[in-house]
Amino acid sequence: MPFCTQCGHQSSGQDAFCANCGAPQPGFGPSARPGVPFSAQSPGADPLAGLTPRTASILCYIPTVGWIAAIIVLAARKFKSDHIVRFHAFQGLYLFAAWLVVSWVVRPLALTLPDHFIRIDHILQAVILAVSIFMMVKASHGEPYVLPIIGELAQRSATEQ
Prior knowledge:
Blueprint: H1 38-41, H2 53-59, H3 66-75, H4 83-111, H5 120-140, H6 150-159
Helix pairs in contact: 2-4, 2-5, 3-4, 4-5, 4-6
């Protein structure tokens, strides 16, 4: 015998609403089609349902792979109206773009210099790594810390929809 998904009261499988609390029962929602099971009607569970805004913000700053989380966060309907999470996603993307510039532009230029010069690409990569860790800490505290230049771009990008 089925039970109410809201209060746990025993009900028949044919009730549209719980007799105890009045909550709608699965299979009888506004999009339900007669004769088709509820599981076949829904497009699927939201894969980001268990992801909190704080966790989503932190994932956007993971070095070298955070851009994947940032794109998923920006594409998700769940975070469409959450300005802070979108800000962190854009800032994480821009931080990744800075890392790409260092890897693809500054490093080849630094390799052309004689060996007695300090490798500026190593210093810049260390700075970007430190900023990523700093931003993960700030995101874990729920603070939208605005980095110079890329933070301002991220704020503008997050407000545009």
